[in-house]
């Protein structure tokens, strides 16, 4: 576990649908109508109410975030965000991925949510290089905490061990720098 200002930052290897937090973040697509990967897992675990709410929302631009309840999952809410499809790193992917994390934190604050879990957005189907994506993810979250130091716990939930070890390395470097 790491501490950054008032927030505990955890890196966990596992299935985000099992997290008992105020909000789990979904790596969705612009339609918000479900898909594979973590999107598929969240819709399967949460049940049809999530898709019903998503249909009413009617989509989400890349880098923005929308919120629904979490249905049958132990968490209270799902924050659906859309990361960029990685092309070559020169099509604004960095800013869009940063915005996806930052706007998810912003939406969590609007709902006064104190604990949140993020997957590694865009690093699956959307092909984002894992190390760069992890650096962007942790920077966006820590930048938000710099601005609004209210959240109690941010969990980075990684499905694979290699991604887990990568995030550990990133935070070891970042937070050691801060000491
Ligand atoms: N818990 C945590 N992480 C998970 C889970 C899970 N249950 N399932 C998959 N992951 C991880 C993947 O290993 C990957 O590292 O989530 C990360 C994001 O991968 P994707 O789910 O493929 O998401 P992304 O790359 O952002 O692509 C989004 O995929 O599922 C579709 O509808 C979605 O079109 C959208 C696209």
Question: Could you characterize what this model shows?
Answer:
The protein is of the alpha/beta class and 179 residues long. The protein has one domain: Leucine Aminopeptidase, subunit E, domain 1 (3-Layer(aba) Sandwich). 41% of the residues lie in helices and 21% in strands. It is built from 5 helices and 7 strands; from the N terminus they run E-E-E-H-H-E-E-H-E-H-E-H. It has helices at 37-46, 48-57, 93-110, 130-147, 161-178; strands at 2-4, 7-13, 23-28, 65-69, 77-82, 115-118, 153-158. Strand 6, helix 4 (130-147) and strand 7 form a beta-alpha-beta unit. Helix 3 packs across helix 4 and helix 4 (130-147) crosses helix 5 (161-178). It starts with a strand and ends with a helix. The structure holds adenosine-5-diphosphoribose. Adenosine-5-diphosphoribose binds next to strand 3 and helix 1.
Topology at a glance:
Layout: E1 2-4, E2 7-13, E3 23-28, H1 37-46, H2 48-57, E4 65-69, E5 77-82, H3 93-110, E6 115-118, H4 130-147, E7 153-158, H5 161-178
Parallel strand pairs: 2-7, 3-5, 3-6, 6-7
Antiparallel strand pairs: 1-2, 4-5
Bound molecules: adenosine-5-diphosphoribose.
Pfam family, one: Macro
Protein name: Macro domain-containing protein
Domain Macro: 1-175
């Amino acid at each position: 576990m790491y501490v950054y200002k008032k927030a505990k930052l955890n890196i966990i290897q596992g299935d985000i649908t099992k997290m008992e937090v105020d909000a789990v973040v979904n790596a969705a697509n612009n339609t918000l109508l479900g898909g594979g990967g973590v999107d598929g897992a969240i819709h399967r675990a949460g049940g049809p109410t999530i898709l019903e709410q998503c249909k009413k929302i009617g989509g989400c631009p890349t880098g923005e975030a929308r919120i629904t309840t979490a249905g049958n999952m132990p968490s209270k809410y799902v924050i659906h965000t859309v990361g960029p499809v990685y092309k070559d790193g020169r099509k604004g992917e960095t800013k869009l991925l940063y915005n996806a994390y930052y706007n998810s934190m912003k939406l969590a604050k609007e709902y006064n949510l104190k604990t949140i879990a993020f997957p590694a957005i865009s690093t699956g189907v959307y092909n984002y290089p894992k190390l760069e994506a992890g650096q962007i993810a942790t920077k966006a979250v820590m930048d938000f905490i710099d601005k609004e130091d209210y959240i109690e716990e941010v969990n980075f939930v990684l499905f694979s061990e290699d991604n887990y070890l990568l995030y550990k390395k990133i935070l070891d470097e970042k937070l050691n720098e801060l000491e």
